[in-house]
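Why YbjN domain-containing protein? Reviewers of the renewal asked for a concrete example.
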Amino acid sequence: MSLACSSTSPGTNSPIALPRIAWQGMRGFEGTFMRSAWFASLMLLAAPLPAAAQEALLDLSTPHGVAKALQDAGYKAEIAKTKDGDSYINSAANGAPFTVNFYNCEPADGCGSIQFYGWYKKKPEFTADLANRWNSRKRFVRVEIDDVGDLGMHLDIATVGKLTKANFADLIDWWNVMTENLSEFLDKEEAERAKKTPAAAQ
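Here is what the prediction returned.
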């Protein structure tokens, strides 16, 4: 601490030499102060973050919780019911509608998983082979052909333990990307089928 050991007297430019005892006392004070500051900084690093600084977790085990999370992320979310009285959510991404369905539901604990689900009406190229080719290349969004020939796509999400907003935003982003990819994949399949189908006789 240069200011302590080399100061000037008023009206002069000459340094004042502090008495040796005084300087040693100040050195002792400096050491104690530095040790205290170092210890205090360690305590601050070890202390848990305030509740306000921790990211809030989303409870996606209920229709109302999922609807709010979707709306907060900028998507529409309308709660509806099936003819059996089960709740689901109508939403849309990239202009394509999808639903959020709820599974493993208990009155006290809510639902253990949810599923984003979209579908395409039956087309000739919707075959088991097409679904297998998509599923062999993609991990997150799976497709299947139902018993009437429609193509369904789904993304399953476990709700146990709750999710952060960042986790949920990432899942929605994956759904958006995969719906775009599937649309492009189906367009190519349709174009390939058209090339292989002989034109109708004029």
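The chain has two domains: 2-46, 57-196. This is the kind of structural detail the renewal will allow us to pursue systematically.
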